[in-house]
Amino acid sequence: LGTSLRSSLDKLQGKRRLEEGDVEEIVKEIQRSLLSADVDVSLVMELSDSIKARALDEEPPGGTTARDHVLKIVYEEMVELVGDSTDLPLENQTILLAGLQGSGKTTSAAKIAWWFSKKGLRPAVIQTDTFRPGAYDQAKQMCERAEVDFYGNPDADDPVEIARTGLEETEDADVHIVDTAGRHALEDDLIAEIEEIDDVVDPDRSLLVLDAAIGQGAKEQARQFEESIGIEGVMITKLDGTAKGGGALTAVNETDSSIAFLGTGETVQDIERFEPSGFISRLLGMGDLKQLSERVERAMQEATEEDDDWDPEDMLQGEFTLKDMKKQMDAMNRMGPLDQVMDMIPGMGGGMMDQLPDDAMDVTQDRMRRFERIMDSMTDKELENPRVVGQSRVRRIARGSGTDEETVQQLLEQHSMMEQTIDQFQGMGEGDMQRMMKK
Ligand code: GDP
Ligand code: MG
């Protein structure tokens, strides 16, 4: 799925304007990915509408290609959808875990404790599950592995009493994580029990623990727990499986909360702090979108900052010399593989690229290096006015640069093609030009 989204985006390469059809296609790909990741239909529709509206209404900043523009919008809207991670100050606090049986609460309690211990705090886990046989042993073992304090009582049968005693017994700890019992489904006694524990524990935040495979069942659970104890964050477990956890977004939406942690395996270290960009990439099944959009921004910035003496507008005022061409090639060289950066260069990515003959910019790194050696072998006068370069000069330059006459000719031809294109651009209005050349 991710590859088809990427190929829809790649189709925009070199395009300056987004057309409705382009946007439709991209939005369709995103919808497909998100729906198969269990994101709620209405959330997907909301997202689609925002992306469409922005992509078609907003004017891309000068020098931005259609692809960069839509990429940025998709990323921003996805961040809006998944939200920021739950605020978790590194200080004394009590965290209550809620969720159905098997969602991963007990495992997550030990993982969260381990996470806080790595941050230099002293956590303790309090196990209040008297419902599930073996709950005490399981929690105790995991806390031993996490090397964190633990309190539980296998002989007691009142979870509220265990919670009260547990908090007293672990008062030396900074962070208290209270694990609770679950049920197979939402039942009144489960809700009543967790409400009582909530009263006694008075947590700073309650986290809802959800299996990544939860799907649409997340909605009712989230609503119930939100109503009874209030939910401040979500932990999505079992993300090491095939489920992408999109259902949890429904819970986030329903509780007006955010995602705190991700569980990615069965051991206590398999925990990640939620971070939007990684999760977005997972949902879309696409490489790091954040990195991609940051790279776009960086490349644009470098392209405008890299040479104080060289103003692309000067190039458009007068002659396009070989010196200008060399500056352009240097600039491109600094930015990485050509085919990837072409689209990101202000002025080059936009309309100008479209107008160049196909092979005009077909400059491989290797060919570019040879071009540079050739230009190093040319006199200032030749660089300023390539027209003076006749057959005998071509021979001299080829010899001097250790290349051949054919390559020198190619360079001159390429320059002349670019020059013609730029001539056409010079006929355009001042405003168009500035939009094209400046970020
Ligand atoms: P609880 O009933 O909510 O306390 O859930 P448990 O912590 O007992 O977890 C139920 C099962 O899910 C156990 O077999 C755990 O090992 C497993 N589990 C929990 N979190 C993860 C996870 O992030 N990845 C995987 N693969 N398994 C997990
Ligand atoms: Mg448990």
Automatic annotation (TrEMBL):
<dbReference type="GO" id="GO:0003924">
    <property type="term" value="F:GTPase activity"/>
</dbReference>
<dbReference type="GO" id="GO:0005525">
    <property type="term" value="F:GTP binding"/>
</dbReference>
<dbReference type="InterPro" id="IPR042101">
    <property type="entry name" value="SRP54_N_sf"/>
</dbReference>
<dbReference type="InterPro" id="IPR003593">
    <property type="entry name" value="AAA+_ATPase"/>
</dbReference>
<keyword id="KW-0733">Signal recognition particle</keyword>
<dbReference type="InterPro" id="IPR022941">
    <property type="entry name" value="SRP54"/>
</dbReference>
<dbReference type="InterPro" id="IPR036225">
    <property type="entry name" value="SRP/SRP_N"/>
</dbReference>
<feature type="domain" description="SRP54-type proteins GTP-binding">
    <location>
        <begin position="92"/>
        <end position="285"/>
    </location>
</feature>
<feature type="domain" description="Signal recognition particle SRP54 helical bundle">
    <location>
        <begin position="1"/>
        <end position="82"/>
    </location>
</feature>
<feature type="binding site">
    <location>
        <begin position="99"/>
        <end position="106"/>
    </location>
    <ligand>
        <name>GTP</name>
    </ligand>
</feature>
<feature type="domain" description="AAA+ ATPase">
    <location>
        <begin position="91"/>
        <end position="275"/>
    </location>
</feature>
<keyword id="KW-0378">Hydrolase</keyword>
<dbReference type="InterPro" id="IPR000897">
    <property type="entry name" value="SRP54_GTPase_dom"/>
</dbReference>
<dbReference type="GO" id="GO:0048500">
    <property type="term" value="C:signal recognition particle"/>
</dbReference>
<keyword id="KW-0687">Ribonucleoprotein</keyword>
<dbReference type="InterPro" id="IPR004125">
    <property type="entry name" value="Signal_recog_particle_SRP54_M"/>
</dbReference>
<feature type="binding site">
    <location>
        <begin position="179"/>
        <end position="183"/>
    </location>
    <ligand>
        <name>GTP</name>
    </ligand>
</feature>
<dbReference type="InterPro" id="IPR027417">
    <property type="entry name" value="P-loop_NTPase"/>
</dbReference>
<comment type="function">
    <text>Involved in targeting and insertion of nascent membrane proteins into the cytoplasmic membrane. Binds to the hydrophobic signal sequence of the ribosome-nascent chain (RNC) as it emerges from the ribosomes. The SRP-RNC complex is then targeted to the cytoplasmic membrane where it interacts with the SRP receptor FtsY.</text>
</comment>
<dbReference type="Pfam" id="PF02978">
    <property type="entry name" value="SRP_SPB"/>
</dbReference>
<protein>
    <recommendedName>
        <fullName>Signal recognition particle 54 kDa protein</fullName>
        <ecNumber>3.6.5.4</ecNumber>
    </recommendedName>
</protein>
<keyword id="KW-0342">GTP-binding</keyword>
<keyword id="KW-0547">Nucleotide-binding</keyword>
<keyword id="KW-0963">Cytoplasm</keyword>
<feature type="binding site">
    <location>
        <begin position="237"/>
        <end position="240"/>
    </location>
    <ligand>
        <name>GTP</name>
    </ligand>
</feature>
<dbReference type="GO" id="GO:0006612">
    <property type="term" value="P:protein targeting to membrane"/>
</dbReference>
<dbReference type="InterPro" id="IPR036891">
    <property type="entry name" value="Signal_recog_part_SRP54_M_sf"/>
</dbReference>
<comment type="subunit">
    <text>Part of the signal recognition particle protein translocation system, which is composed of SRP and FtsY. Archaeal SRP consists of a 7S RNA molecule of 300 nucleotides and two protein subunits: SRP54 and SRP19.</text>
</comment>
<dbReference type="Pfam" id="PF00448">
    <property type="entry name" value="SRP54"/>
</dbReference>
<dbReference type="Pfam" id="PF02881">
    <property type="entry name" value="SRP54_N"/>
</dbReference>
<dbReference type="GO" id="GO:0008312">
    <property type="term" value="F:7S RNA binding"/>
</dbReference>
<dbReference type="InterPro" id="IPR013822">
    <property type="entry name" value="Signal_recog_particl_SRP54_hlx"/>
</dbReference>
<keyword id="KW-0694">RNA-binding</keyword>
<comment type="similarity">
    <text>Belongs to the GTP-binding SRP family. SRP54 subfamily.</text>
</comment>
